[in-house]
Write a structure and sequence with these properties.
Blueprint (H helix, E strand, L loop, with lengths): L4 H7 L5 H16 L5 E3 L2 E4 L4 H13 L9 E3 L9 H4 L3 H16 L3 E4 L15 E3 L2 H9 L10 H10 L1 E3 L13 E6 L7 H15 L4 E4 L5 H14 L6 E2 L6 H4 L8 E5 H5 L9 E4 L6 H11 L8 E4 L2 H6 L1 H9 L3 E3 L15 E4 L2 H10 L4 E4 L2 H9 L1
Parallel strand pairs: 2-3, 2-5, 3-4, 7-8, 7-10, 8-9, 11-12, 11-14, 12-13, 14-15
Antiparallel strand pairs: 1-6
Bound molecules: FE3-S4 cluster (F3S).
Length: about 400
């Protein structure tokens, strides 16, 4: 790899031992993936934030680091809402350890906004280089916003935040952003809710694996794109997709789609994971809710009371700017929590069956929540089940 004189000085230890170690990590990653240089980044999003996933060894590693992020950087969701963990029923021992993880990141200059939707708080621009970790955030940044990021591991994203650069390979390079398979969707757009887009992504991710799909036949809005990308990143390893006439890079690749293998997905395949399974709780906001989703949930819950636990997850910054919708949701007995989600919080492990409106959550809940059964439904279905 070609390193600048300044980078060589950091590697020689002139900026301290932590910077030396973290740059060494970035250079090692770059060599593995054939990067020729490092590229400056606009922001980082760091996973490995829930004590449920990093445990005591991850915490010990974080606590011995001594440096500060030089670009704006946020955390992925943690295992609890920081201000309301007691109310959510989080075990005090877990909360103590989770607080220690949060403090360790804060000391490193990472903003304590713990979310998989950092783009609602500070949206990247077309062409920006980023070092983001969480798979749905990576998918949204690349596909919907046209920014450029690989899916970084937690340590790689943290190193990039502190060094301000990431190895330039993979999706940072335009030649690696070309579509590799075409997906023709044969369904009426009016039948495709956000949950249906999650189901479409759930199905498509299994079919395309790690290839870059180019969708035709759909006209999703931003929330549907978010649901589609999150689910494809969960069942496949899709970090970038294009949608004809919708996403910012789709037009430039249109001519080359004629020669691609085409997969057709129809209405029945999208519908096949919807069931009537009884559930003990409802959890929505995977990925974290947009302002429009909070408004929709508030409208549906107004004048109703939930009879089973109903969790809504969103970024703290989004909650703060949409207080009236949040208040309307909470008047029904549902709870809107920041910082965490149905997959990373240990609280969700108490339920044996959980209803979600997300293809990603549908894919992850059984594995992450002690084998719980997941049921997917539209947000209208979720509210109907919770208030019946
Ligand atoms: Fe976000 Fe948690 Fe879903 S991190 S994408 S809400 S699994």
């Amino acid at each position: 790899m070609q390193l600048s004189a300044e980078e060589e000085r950091v590697l020689a230890g002139e900026s301290g031992e932590t910077c030396r170690q973290l740059l060494e990590l970035l250079v090692a990653l770059g060599k593995v993936f054939g990067a020729e240089r490092l590229v400056p980044i606009r922001s980082a999003q760091v996973s490995g934030a829930s004590y449920k996933t990093i445990g005591k060894y991850g915490l010990a590693w974080l606590e011995q680091l001594d440096a500060k992020a030089v670009v704006p950087a946020v955390l992925n969701p943690i295992g609890m809402p920081r201000g309301r963990w007691q109310e959510m029923g989080v075990d005090p021992e877990f909360a103590k350890n989770q607080e220690a993880v949060v403090r360790a990141y804060e000391r490193l200059g990472i903003r304590l906004e713990c979310t998989c939707t950092p783009y609602y708080l500070s949206p990247p621009a077309l062409g920006d280089h980023l070092a983001w970790s969480e798979s749905s955030a990576v998918s949204y940044a690349n596909s919907v916003l046209g920014a450029r990021t690989n899916r970084e591991g937690g340590p790689g994203a943290l190193a990039a935040a502190i060094i301000g650069k990431t190895p330039c390979y993979g999706l940072h390079l335009p030649e690696n952003r070309r579509p590799q398979v075409r997906i023709s969707v044969e369904a009426q757009e009016r039948d495709l809710s956000i949950a249906h887009y999650g189901a479409l992504g759930y199905h498509a991710g299994k079919l395309v694996g790690n290839r870059i799909p180019y969708f035709t036949g759909i006209r999703p809005d931003a929330d549907r794109l978010k649901a589609l990308g999150a689910a494809m990143a969960a069942t496949g390893a899709v970090a970038l997709y294009h949608v004809q006439g919708v996403t910012p890079e789709a037009l430039q690749y249109l001519p080359e789609t004629a020669d691609l293998e085409t997969i057709t997905i129809g209405r029945e395949e999208i519908r096949q994971i919807f069931t009537d399974t009884p559930v003990e709780a409802v959890a929505v906001g995977c990925p974290h809710c947009s302002p429009a989703e909070l408004d929709r949930i508030a409208a549906l819950l107004t004048g109703r009371k939930v009879r089973i636990p109903f969790y809504v997850f969103a970024a703290q910054g989004v909650i703060d700017k949409n207080r009236s919708a949040v208040a309307a949701i909470e008047r029904s007995g549902a709870r809107v929590y920041a910082d965490t989600c149905m997959v990373v919080s240990p609280v969700m492990e108490q339920y044996r069956a959980l209803m979600v409106n997300s293809g990603k959550a549908f894919a992850y809940v059984p594995g992450m929540c002690s084998g719980a059964v997941a049921r997917i439904g539209t947000i209208e279905d979720c509210v109907a089940v919770a208030t019946a």
